[in-house]
Amino acid sequence: MHKLIRKISAFFSHSGATLPDASSLTQPLVLQRDDHNISRSDIEKSALDVLYSLKRAGYDAYLVGGCVRDLLLGLEPKDFDVVTNAEPEQIKQVFRQRCRLIGRRFRLAHVTFGRVVIEVATFRANGEAQPASKKRFLGRKNAQQRQVDDSGRLLQDNLYGTIEEDAWRRDFTVNALYYSIHDFSIADYTHQGLQDIEKGLLRLIGDPETRYREDPVRLIRAVRFAAKLGFKIEPKTEKPIPLLAPLLRDVSNARMFEEVLKLFHSGVALEVFEKLRHYHLFEHLFPQTDALLAQEREQFPRMLVIEALKSTDARIQAGKTVNPSFLFAALLWESMLQRQQALLEQGMTPQDALFHAANQVIEQQISHTAIPKRFTLQIREIWAFQYRLPRRSGDRAQTLVEHPRFRAAYDFLGIRVAAGEETLAELFDWWTQYQEKSPVERVAFVSNLAPKPPQKARRNNRNFYRKRSQTSDKFDQS
Ligand code: ATP
Ligand code: MG
């Protein structure tokens, strides 16, 4: 990194923070192999194999995007993306049975090495961000074919292009750096990516408003990268965010679900959450939760959300798995409780109130972020478990602990305690101890429970799940 900073600083000592004159953009800025800190030993072996195989077959091949950015910053990349001038069928010929072509609208190659999958894309065009003078000789054909709808959203993104065009259609300058397998240099076509890495700035390529309108998901990508990298969002990139936040309503709810997972499973979910709220993006992702947060009743549900995000961050940082339904259950819990209360006041039984409140809250949420059906079932289970965990006598405790959703439900109880529901602390401790005991000890432990006053007849909890499982779509749409 120090070497990188020294070289880049020398490189840029002559230039200001604005885009250089377009006439100087015909050539990328290039950091030669000795001038940067990326060594081949930092690169996933399978990605290197892919790069070398493409090179041997006579194609250009580069690492691009998050992996180059992260390696320059000394971070461990999440994955390695490769771009090449080979078209998908040609990529397939190089890798044969290792290679699967995916995507209908824009074809991509997945090259598989055991469990590792390297995504290989062909250079794409379509970047409106490209300076006009440059477009004249690079992208005229593509510019004519580029299609946007009335709000400026890109309708197609499926033209092959040159590496320059590929660079200009990317989102942030720091995501548009290319590491060449031919000479191990790094090419920066926007002339700002390297500089922004050094300064810790997140800057959209081109006119920010146009780029956000083309693809509103870039609004939340800005927040994710700012949180993950600890970067500042450059003022022109930052300014339109709250104004354009309502454009998120145009993004398909299925894509929004994927993006929400990336946001909250980034390892910096707490920071992401604060930033989403700050830029008025959160209200377009979780409007019900946002409305409650605005009320701030005794710090609830803010604390529950925060505890859930903290626990998610801790698990990711410890390399543990995370379950999307836990996160959604926490984000929507307080909204569900409020509905449930209203329904109880209308005279519904507790069980029916829980069932209908859960349905209503989930149905409203999926119009913003689709939730695959297996997760909506789990969310309901986690919620229903909150009412089952206090009932532990006889063989109930053992039945509950063997349920596949027990662990998530127990963790959920834990974050409720951490968020301030002190009356549940004893129950949570009891379950913690129960899990640590041998089967014989468990029996004695349960029999020590203070006898409870007789309960009213309970409805069968299973109705709660049976009713829901009648719908069969992949996503739980209403
Ligand atoms: P991460 O570390 O989260 O994987 P990343 O930068 O690699 O970060 P990806 O979503 O994997 O992000 O995308 C890979 C690259 O594709 C990005 O770096 C960027 O160059 C380009 N890209 C992805 N999404 C967009 C978008 N919505 N608009 C323009 N370019 C994009
Ligand atoms: Mg990536």
Keywords:
cca-adding enzyme, domain 2; two-stranded parallel ribbon; alpha+beta; binds adenosine-5'-triphosphate; binds magnesium ion; 478 residues; eight-stranded mixed sheet; single chain
Short précis:
This protein has 478 residues and is α+β, with helices and mostly antiparallel strands.
Description:
With 478 residues, the protein is an alpha+beta fold. It folds into three domains: 2-125 and 160-199, Beta Polymerase, domain 2 (2-Layer Sandwich); 208-249, no CATH class; 285-447, cca-adding enzyme, domain 2 (Orthogonal Bundle), CATH 1.10.3090. The chain contains 25 helices and ten strands. An eight-stranded mixed β-sheet has the order 1-8-7-2-3-6-5-4. It is elongated. The relative contact order is 0.07. Residues 65-66, 78-79, 81, 170-171, 175-176, 215, 217-218 line the site of adenosine-5'-triphosphate.
Ordered list of secondary-structure elements with their pairings:
Blueprint lengths: L1 H11 L16 E3 L13 H12 L4 E4 L1 H7 L8 E4 L3 H8 L3 E4 L5 E6 L2 E7 L9 H7 L1 H6 L17 H6 L8 E4 L5 E3 L4 H7 L1 E2 L5 H7 L2 H13 L2 E2 L1 H4 L1 H5 L8 H12 L4 H10 L3 H4 L1 H9 L6 H16 L6 H22 L4 H17 L6 H16 L7 H6 L4 H13 L6 H12 L2 H9 L14 H7 L10
Parallel strand pairs: 3-6, 9-10
Antiparallel strand pairs: 1-8, 2-3, 2-7, 4-5, 5-6, 7-8
The structure holds adenosine-5'-triphosphate and magnesium ion (MG).
The site of adenosine-5'-triphosphate has 12 residues, from helix 10.
